[in-house]
Amino acid sequence: MHISNEYLYEEDKKNYLPTFKRFPLAFIKGKGSRLWDADGKEYIDMLAGIAVNNLGHCHPKVVSAIQEQAAELIHISNFFVSPPQVALSKLLVDLSKLDHVFLTNSGAESVEGAIKIARKYASKNNRGGGIISMENSFHGRTLATIATGQKKYQKGFAPIPSGFSQVAFNDINALKAAINDDVAAVILEPVQGEGGVIPADKKYLQEVRALCDENNVLLIFDEIQCGIGRTGQLFAKEHYDIQPDIMTLAKGLGGGMPIGAFLCNEKVGNAIDFGDHGTTFGGNPLASAAALATLTTILEEGLEERALTMGNYIMNTVSSWSKDHPMIKEVRGLGMMIGIQLDRPAPPIVKALLDDGVIANGTAESVIRLVPPLNIPEEDVALALNKLKSIIESIEQNEKS
To answer: At what angle do helices 285-300 and 60-70 cross, to 10 degrees?
Structure first.
C-alpha cells in the first residue's frame, strides 16, 4: 500500500489531539534545505522547523553524532554525568560568558526554569516574585509561560498563574512605571518571533539593563528562537552589547533533537540549593551529543556570519519590491530571522507558497516569517524569493483586473 499524504493526514486526525491546524502534508525525507512529502513532491524549506533546523535537514555531522552516541549510551538520568553533557555544558558556558547552565528538553521548560531561579534569587534578596514580560511576546505553552504571553493563548485556561504582568515592548517608560519591590525579573525576546519578528531597539535594551541593575531586578533574555546563530551572531544579545542575568535556549540548539537550556550568572547560580530544580531527560547523552555537533558545526562553518549576509540579501531583495507592490508594508528582522509585513492576512500567501513548493509560515496574522536553515544554498533562496514575488504579482494583478 502506498503511504500517501492523504492517508497519513486522515490517520493522524483519528488519533492525535486536535491542537494543530495542520496542512494535509506528510514529510518523509529531508536533506539540506529540501524536503519531500509522502507523494514525492519536493519543497524548499524556508521555515526550518520554526528556526530549529539551523543546519538544515540531516546534516552529516549531526547524523553521525546521533548514530554514534545512540550505539554507546542514550540515557542515564541526572544522578550521573556523561561526556557529551560535560562537553556541551562547558561549551555553552564558554560561548555565552555566563557561569552556569541547566539542560532541558524544550523552550517552554527553559523559560519555566528561568522563572523559578529568578524567583529563588528574589526570595533570597527579600523581593517579591513578580515577572514582567512584553506585550506580543511568546515564551511557550505551559501555564506559567502563557501567563507571560499573549491573551489569546490564555483563553479557557483560567485560573492563570499569578505574579505576571506585561508592558509595551521598546517602551522604557512603561517598564519604569512597572518596576517595584514586588518584581523579581523582566523577561523579553531580543527579537520577538511570534509577535511579528520585531527586533528590540539597542538603546531601549541598554536602558532596560541599567534599570534592572538599579533595582536589583534580574534580566532574562529569551533566545529560544533568535539564538544559535539565527540573527547573525551566535546569540542575539551580542548585537546589543548586553549580558542578561539569565538566558534561555532551545529550538536551534539540537539540530532537530529536542533539547533546551537556561544559563545564568554567578549571583543567580548562588541562589540555587540542591533539589531546587530537576529534569529526568534534560541533557541526556543523546541530546547533548546532537547539540554539541550542531554548535561546533555552526562555529566551524562560520554560519553566524553567513546568516547576517544572507539575511541582509533576503531583506534587501524583498524591500526592493515594495515600491511596486503595495502589499508589502515593511520588511524587518535580524540575520536570517525575517518578517515581511503585509497589508492583509498572511495565511493565503503561505498556502500559495506551499502549493508552489516553498515552506514558510505566517505569524502575527499579517506577517510572513522566513527562518530558513543558516546554510541554505543561494540558489534555493533565489528560487524561493522568485516564487514569492510571482505570487504577490499574481494576486495584485487579479485585484486590478
So the answer is: 160
